[in-house]
Every structure is written in structure tokens, then in C-alpha cells.
Design a protein that fits this description.
Elements (H helix, E strand, L loop, with lengths): L18 H15 L2 E4 L4 E4 L6 E5 L4 E8 L2 E11 L3 E6 L2 E5 L5 E4 L6 E5 L4 E8 L2 E11 L64 E3 L4 E3 L6 E4 L4 E9 L2 E5 L21 H6 L8 E13 L12 E6 L7 E5 L2 H8 L6 E10 L9 E8 L2
Parallel strand pairs: 19-21
Antiparallel strand pairs: 1-4, 2-3, 3-9, 4-5, 5-11, 6-7, 7-10, 8-9, 10-11, 12-15, 13-14, 15-16, 17-18, 17-20, 18-19, 20-21
Amino acid sequence: MRNVRKPPQSSPGLGRLPACFLTLLTVLAVPCAAQNRLKAVTAAPLVKEPNGLKIGSLAAGVSYHVGKTVGTHVEVTLDGWLPSSAVVAASRDGFDLSVTVGGGESLRDKPNGAVIARVQEGTLLSKAGAEGKWVKVKRTAFTIKTAFAAPDQTKPVPVAANPVPPPPSTKPAPATTGSAASGGKSKPVPDSTRPGNDAPVSDSVSGSALIRGGTVLSATPDGKPAFTAESATDAEVVGRARDWIKIRVEGWVRTSDVTAEAVSGPRITGTMVREKPDKFVGQSLIWRLQFLAVQEADALRPEMPAGQQYILARGPLPEAGFVYLMVTKDQVGEFRRLSPLDEVRVEAVVRAGRTKYLPTPVLELVKVVAQ
């Protein structure tokens, strides 16, 4: 009987694998690449789950790892650095860190690097590393799909491709013969329906409207997105143009998110606070004050704890009233270096619109703002 040679027991080289098997490997690799990096075209809320609790916010112009889509939301993964002092150990829902900073904390691309997102107090995170006084964290959550609108969806539509005739009453018919003064040529009449023109086409403007959550607001009709309304929001309708409605909304942003601020005068004046002392309690403001002296609270100022150090100041400039600015032991040193009548710009929170005996607002200092 002839000896039958047994096949080798080791696997063949990769080059000898069937083509169909290589194709299968390629197909299996596709899900790994399904999570793309996309750039956010607008700031957007970060929520625990679709339509769920907000845990932070994304920044416009930053690229994120984007995953699966669930309805109007898309999965996004944050990967960045936080100061170690901003988190504490936790053991809940599979996470091991929790944000403890009252106003939230900025997530950065590297220690002391650029801000890529913000996470709110109480947000749970996974620790991915550490470096000095910084800790690397990760978190997968959701945001609205419109935060990553495709570029071709944001390009303005040329006017010529979508002509709209103006109202008959706003544009007279062209003359068949020109006058001697115009050389026989008729002058063009501005078209108020063109995108970017602030003049509304229709005068029938309703008083208010409710816009849906996730709506993208643009600066002009057919313009690029400016920002996104996270939830249903009341708005005032102030104009119309074709199938667009011009609205006006009010809202609040963090001071840290403001890149430039007008210094001509405060939006909330001292007169406004004195006239309605209860309306502005708890609100943040930026006032320019004239330093007078460092003092301590007494029984005549029950709005402050007895012995509380505060700054007696005049303002907000150019107003001539007085202001009490509460400061901590660490903050008071910055004012002791000033001379009476020196001017200082501060960010503060209104604690009382007036005292029991005097129409003097009581503020609590947040920080001194660079002039």
C-alpha cells in the first residue's frame, strides 16, 4: 500500500487565501469605519439619550466621532482632557468619574489645549488616562443631527434659480420710453425679495410663533446655519420673505462663550435694578464701577452677613448711584491695591436690588474683567 501524504496542519499564507475570504474580511471591517469624524457646523446640546437629559454642549467648528443615528439625533463620542480638580471618583452606570464644578467645565483637546466641548456638573465620564494635574476622559452621548449638516445643504441658493416676482405695489411697470433726463433708460428698482435683504416682503407679520426643537436658524434666507434651537422656543415674528419667517428670540449664554463684548454701557442698568429690585436677583451682569473703599457689613445692611467684606463703589458708570459689591478674602486684595476713584470692570451676580434702608444694589463678585 502506498503511503498517502497528509496535508500540512499549519494554515496557508495570506497570499494563498481564497479571494472570497479576503472580501469577507473587508466587509467585516466596514462597521469599524462607520464612526466618522465630522465637523459641527453649529454649537449643539449634548444629551444622555435622544430627547433626554442635557449633559453638556458641543462647539461649532470642532470635529467629533459620530456614530449611529436615532431619529433626529446622532451618537457622538467625546474624547478630551479635564483638570483633575473638576472631577471626583464615581461608580455608577459603568462610569468612574463625575464632574463637580458648579458651572460645568470645558473639555480640551489636550492639557491646557483648545476647548472642544463643555460638560455639566454631575456628568458621568470614563477615565482614559492622566497627565500631571489633568485627566483624560471619554463619553458617548447624543446630539441633534442638524449639528452636522452636510455642506451642500447649507449653501445659499442663487436668486436666479428661484425667481420670485415682487408685489405689484412695490415695483412699477417699466416705462416704454425714457425721459430726457435719464437718457431713455429706466433705473433698476431694488428687489426686496432677494436673500439677505432685511426688508420683509409681506406686511402681515404675526405677533409670535413657537419654533420646533432642533430648528436651525440662519442669519439670512437660504443662508448658512447660525445656531440651533435645542428645544421648542417662543419667538417674535418680525418679518417674512418668500417661505422664510424672520424671528427674534431671547436667551442666555455663558460669559466664557462670549468672544467680544460691547463696552458702551450695561444692558442691565442701575436704574433698571433700582426700579424693579426683585426682577434681576440672581442674574449675572458686567458693570464698570468706580472704586471708593473696602468696608464690612453691619446691621444697617442685613442683605449681607455681618462682617462680610464688600466694596463701596459708584456706578454702574456713567450712572452716579452707589453699589455694594461683596468680595471674598481672596478677592479683596485686588481692590486694596486700587486708589479711590479708580475704575474697574467686574462680572457679578445680583444678590439684592436694594438694601432695607437704601436704594443700593447688592452684588456678589464673580471676577474682575480686563478693561
